[in-house]
């Protein structure tokens, strides 16, 4: 199988990797770069659990071929805040205890960041729309919506 050179930026770090045509962005992030925060759920793009930001747009990394990320900027949950300096969205999720099992939370936080970067004062309906592509089986979304509202206020 032919390999292709993939040059891209992930969490503000430049990478150059040889990838095969069939490799998904999700697999490259998890298996080649060790970024395990991006989760694999359904592998069909239905659950949104694998969401990352690619050039500032939320995408399901299970549906993106790695080579499609050539010359792109990818942001995963590992690129948002640090243990010593959490992002306001992360702080709000903790404040509201918005994660239970935590499996969907990396994608939820990235969806919230995508929304708040584009709309710093979203309505509750806009928040619900922004996270609607990410399935959560634990929380019922109420605390997640409240966390995004709190983050929006804090980020102003």
Can you tag this structure with a few keywords?
single chain, 156 residues, alpha+beta, Ubiquitin-like (UB roll), DNA polymerase, domain 1, 2 domains, five-stranded mixed sheet, 5 helices, globular
Any chance you could write out the topology, listing elements then pairs?
Layout: E1 3-10, E2 13-20, H1 25-32, E3 51-54, E4 57-60, E5 73-75, H2 88-95, H3 105-118, H4 124-131, H5 142-155
Parallel strand pairs: 1-5
Antiparallel strand pairs: 1-2, 3-4, 3-5
Task: Please summarize what this structure is.
The chain is α+β, with helices and mostly antiparallel strands and 156 residues long. The chain has helices spanning 25-32, 88-95, 105-118, 124-131, 142-155; strands at residues 3-10, 13-20, 51-54, 57-60, 73-75.
Low-confidence stretches: none
Number of domains: 2
User: What is the ordering of alpha helices and beta strands?
Assistant: EEHEEEHHHH
Shape: globular
Q: Main sheet, how many strands, which sense, barrel?
A: 5 strands, mixed
Structural class, judged by helices and strands?
A: alpha+beta
Number of helices: 5
Count every beta strand, where a strand is a DSSP E run of 2 or more residues: 5
Q: Helix amount, in percent? A: 25-40%
Overall mean confidence score, pLDDT: 96
Write the CATH homologous superfamily of the largest domain.
Answer: Beta-grasp domain
- CATH C-level class of the largest domain: Alpha Beta
- What is the straight-line distance between the termini? 50 Å
Strand fraction band?
Answer: 15-25%
CATH architecture of the largest domain: Roll
For the largest sheet, list the strands in their spatial order: 2-1-5-3-4
Task: Say what the CATH topology of the largest domain is.
Answer: Ubiquitin-like (UB roll)
Radius of gyration: 15 Å
Regarding quaternary structure, what we see is single chain
